[in-house]
């Protein structure tokens, strides 16, 4: 029984090993209207990032909007008055920064 | 009364196949040999037998600490799926700092904070690896920043020009033109 299962397990591991190798964090932000910005987080292996921290931080390093992504891996926030950047933070070294200049207008 | 159907003579291709099939299959076994040099070069690179990486950048002083940095591959960043272009770097910590350094980060451009210090090196202090995202709009005069964080909370930074860190990346950036 076990010996019959082994080749199947080997095939499974060989097929899915590449997916486990690379899963870099990704984040995309766009302005949905003049006031609101929506950010979507995820990983390059296609998985979502519900519950992952996403902070909106001012150029002076004050946290303007402390947030966490919702169940659909998105977070919508009101555009701050001050200059800011978005930090998708999935842990040390697994961050994505998006400057306000790189956020698409609606 | 039966009529025997005369057997048609075998075609020329069939004759050739039957005569040479054994030898042709031997040739098939030789095909993997062509991939052997690359296989052994990669195995030696990943095992560390051929150095820290394909191109050693040198010893870089970061505050009281230092690290030896190398490009994993002496080539332009590779497109690795939806996360964009990535470039692999390897590093080895100095003998003194192996016990003192908690984390080492790599980023193009000066980090805004320790939280946003960039890609983290993982692995043993003797041979760590990091995958650095290289945005397509990176400027040719950009700098590679190394941030090291100690167990005591100390943070030290150093930078080297991208042209020194990876000439192949610089050539790639110049070739595709500065994207907005």
Instruction: Estimate what percentage of residues of chain B fall within beta strands.
Output: 25-35%
Q: Biggest sheet of chain A, open or closed, and with what strands and sense? A: 4 strands, antiparallel
- Beta-strand content of chain A: 35-45%
Average pLDDT metric of chain B:
91
Number of helices of chain B: 4
Largest sheet of chain B: 6 strands, antiparallel
Task: Identify the most extensive interface between protein chains.
Answer: A-B, 16 and 20 residues
Shape of chain B: elongated
The beta-strand count of chain A equals 7
Helix content of chain B: 25-40%
Please compute the radius of gyration of chain A using only Cα atoms. Answer: 18 Å
Q: Give the SSE order of chain A as H and E letters.
A: HEEEEEEE
What structural category do the secondary elements of chain A indicate? Answer: alpha+beta
- Count of helical regions of chain A: 1
The overall strand count of chain B is 10
**Helical residue percent of chain A?**
10-25%
Could you give the distance between the termini of chain B?
88 Å
């Amino acid at each position: 029984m076990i010996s019959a299962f082994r080749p199947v397990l080997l095939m499974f591991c060989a097929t899915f090993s590449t997916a486990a190798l690379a899963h870099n964090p990704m984040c995309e932000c766009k302005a949905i209207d003049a006031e609101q910005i929506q950010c979507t987080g995820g990983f390059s292996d296609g998985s979502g990032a519900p519950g992952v921290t996403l902070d909106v931080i001012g150029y002076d390093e004050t946290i303007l909007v402390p947030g966490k992504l919702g169940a659909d891996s998105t977070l919508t926030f009101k555009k701050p008055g001050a200059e800011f950047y978005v930090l998708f933070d999935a842990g040390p070294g697994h961050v994505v920064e998006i400057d306000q200049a790189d956020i698409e207008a609606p | 009364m039966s009529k025997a159907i005369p057997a048609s003579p075998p075609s020329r291709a069939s004759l050739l196949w039957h005569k040479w099939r054994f030898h042709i299959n031997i040739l098939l076994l030789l095909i993997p040999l062509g991939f052997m040099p690359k296989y052994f070069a990669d195995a030696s690179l990943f095992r560390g037998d051929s150095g820290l990486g394909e191109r050693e950048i040198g010893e870089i002083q970061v505050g009281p600490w230092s690290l030896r940095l190398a490009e994993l591959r002496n080539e332009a960043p590779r497109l690795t799926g939806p996360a964009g272009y990535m470039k692999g770097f390897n590093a080895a910590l100095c003998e003194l700092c192996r016990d003192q350094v908690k984390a080492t980060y790599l980023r193009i451009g000066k980090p805004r904070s320790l939280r946003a210090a960039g890609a983290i090196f993982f692995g043993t202090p003797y041979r760590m690896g990091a995958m650095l995202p290289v945005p397509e709009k990176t400027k040719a005069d950009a700098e590679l920043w190394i941030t090291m964080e100690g167990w005591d909370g100390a943070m030290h930074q150093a930078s080297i020009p991208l042209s020194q860190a990876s000439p192949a990346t610089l050539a790639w950036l110049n070739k595709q033109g500065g994207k907005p």
